[in-house]
Structure to design on (582 residues):
């Protein structure tokens, strides 16, 4: 059976270290030799660099699975097909819009579920889009005139904002809005997890509750910072800030190894969708028993290769593989094998025409 | 969980109570995950009930590129974890028993999980609780086996591949394994000459189900 090879582990560690080193370099370059880097955010930076390396390590290790590796290679191979590059790009863009942005497939499972996921996802992604560039010193602001704020990205000046405008208020409070989104989404999720009989049976504390609890605590402590500075004159600000930092770092370290890893993993479905679309246009494999076309020949070939690489040998006496049969025929073939076990006089299937036929033959 | 399932196809009368009851399971979200297949509807009334056999080394889980199919501590092979499943359907076509189901619209893989909400608390899975003939039974090995004359076997041989499972099939013979050779020995005996075969003139709901759902494993 498949076990992770030492070589794959080593390669993944190298990728992880390279990713951490690359991000560190980007922090130095993006903050113009740390000129715009805020030293107070050092803890966040270190945690981000370590977590990023761990994510890349996990991703590389994940790609070393036989099934994942084949999909990964075949997906890119199909995408790079020069004659169809435009079509493939369109297909990928469509999948990204429908599946990753709109998440139509979750909407079909239920509106509340979709709302829950959309609130958490956009809350987290927008927060990340605001926080990471600030932490890494990629974005900073400078006061211009009495109330103008100019944004600098990687040290290059962008537009200026009127510090008293509605737009500025929204920008400065972006993390408050996203915190409310995340809390609302997690509340819906936890409510379902406390009520749904199926969810109650299947959920695990570390896998299903911890991420919600972490996200809620990060959001609540984040909001408390705003409350402290706006209305309480900075009361307990440094303590809240330290707690918030500790919680964020815990979440970052949970990211590569817990449920939240799907944020990084799930975009691979764009490649799988492209694979499926192209496969539908290709010659189809017919079931060796009933003749129904059930998957493409390419897909079946890849699947058989994966099955073999995993150490299985489903070669049948006639030379075919078990995967050459459609799912229903596999079930029926097993039923027929079961039926052929007893001798004809046994009570199995008494009354069937087979018995009558045999009796007739005997006569 | 010491309990497991015991499937005895010779007791199956094809009533499909299990198919209906399966939808009521808390983890199946209103969809049935069990199959009752006719072996050859024109030739015999024999039916084959198929639940997940919960392999000790599940092919479905190993061919999953997303590592989304997990086993519980009790050896129950679970439905794919929703956040991870990548919509590839490898599991549907790799499973030697033809068990996992897929819904393309919802990007959702589901399979028989022995009604985990029930069985993890010692309750019978829905199918076993409604089966009128005992074709699907749930309980401890030492409880069920003495009640039957059939032999419990949890090894299938698919060509060169031995597959050991948590679920038992009750055999009417002394065989140690079910050998699925794909050659259709019994099938050959069943088939009548083409001119004698009757073609159904009216499509029944069962044909529709076979054509649209059972053949593709789409739910």
């Amino acid at each position: 059976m498949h076990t992770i090879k030492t070589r794959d582990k080593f390669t993944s560690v190298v990728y992880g270290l390279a990713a951490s080193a690359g991000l560190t370099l980007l922090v130095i370059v993006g903050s113009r030799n740390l000129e715009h880097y805020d030293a107070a955010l050092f803890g966040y930076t270190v945690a981000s660099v370590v977590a990023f390396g761990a994510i890349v390590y996990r991703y590389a290790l994940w790609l070393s699975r036989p099934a994942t590796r084949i999909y990964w290679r075949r997906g890119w191979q199909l995408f790079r097909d020069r004659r169809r590059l435009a079509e493939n790009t369109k297909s990928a863009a469509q999948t990204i819009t429908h599946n990753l942005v709109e998440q139509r497939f979750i909407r079909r499972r239920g509106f509340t579920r979709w709302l829950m996921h959309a609130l958490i996802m956009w809350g987290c992604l927008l927060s990340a889009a605001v926080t990471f560039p600030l932490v890494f010193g990629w974005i900073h602001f400078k006061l211009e005139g009495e109330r103008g704020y100019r944004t600098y990205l990687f040290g290059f000046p962008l537009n200026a904002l009127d510090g008293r405008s509605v737009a500025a208020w929204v920008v400065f409070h972006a993390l408050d809005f996203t915190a409310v989104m995340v809390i609302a989404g997690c509340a819906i999720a936890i409510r379902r997890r406390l009520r749904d009989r199926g969810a109650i049976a299947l959920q695990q504390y570390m896998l299903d509750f911890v991420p919600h609890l972490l996200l809620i605590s990060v959001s609540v402590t984040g909001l408390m910072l705003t409350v402290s500075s706006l209305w309480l004159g900075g009361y307990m600000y440094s303590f809240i800030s330290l707690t918030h930092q500790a919680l964020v770092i815990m979440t970052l370290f949970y990211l590569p190894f817990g449920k939240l890893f799907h944020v990084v993993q799930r975009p691979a479905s764009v490649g799988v969708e492209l694979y499926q679309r192209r496969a539908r246009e290709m010659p189809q494999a017919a079931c060796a028993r009933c003749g129904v076309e059930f998957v493409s020949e390419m897909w079946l070939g890849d699947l058989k290769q994966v099955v073999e690489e995993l150490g299985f040998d489903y070669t049948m006496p006639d030379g075919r593989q078990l995967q050459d049969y459609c799912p229903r025929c596999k079930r029926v073939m097993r039923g027929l094998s079961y039926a052929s076990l007893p001798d004809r006089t046994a009570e199995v299937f008494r009354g069937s025409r087979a018995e009558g036929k045999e009796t007739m033959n005997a006569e | 969980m010491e309990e497991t399932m015991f499937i005895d196809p010779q007791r199956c009368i094809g009533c499909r109570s299990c198919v209906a009851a399966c939808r009521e399971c808390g983890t199946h979200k209103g969809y049935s995950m069990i199959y009752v297949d006719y072996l050859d509807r024109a030739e015999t009334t024999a039916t084959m009930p198929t639940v997940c056999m919960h392999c000790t080394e599940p092919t479905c889980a190993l061919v999953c590129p997303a590592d989304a199919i997990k086993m519980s501590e009790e050896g129950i092979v679970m439905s794919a974890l929703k956040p991870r499943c990548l919509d590839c359907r490898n599991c549907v076509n790799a499973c030697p028993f033809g068990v996992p189901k897929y819904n393309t619209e919802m990007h959702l893989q589901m399979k028989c999980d022995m009604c985990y909400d029930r069985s993890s608390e010692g309750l019978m899975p829905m199918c076993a609780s409604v089966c009128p003939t005992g074709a699907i039974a749930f309980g401890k090995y030492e409880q069920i086996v003495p009640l039957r004359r059939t032999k419990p076997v949890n090894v299938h041989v698919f060509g060169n591949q031995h597959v050991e499972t948590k679920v038992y099939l009750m055999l009417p013979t002394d065989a140690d394994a079910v050998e699925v050779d794909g050659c259709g020995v019994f099938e050959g005996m069943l088939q009548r000459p083409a001119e004698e075969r009757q073609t159904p003139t009216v499509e029944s709901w069962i044909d529709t189900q076979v054509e649209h759902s059972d053949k593709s494993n789409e739910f």
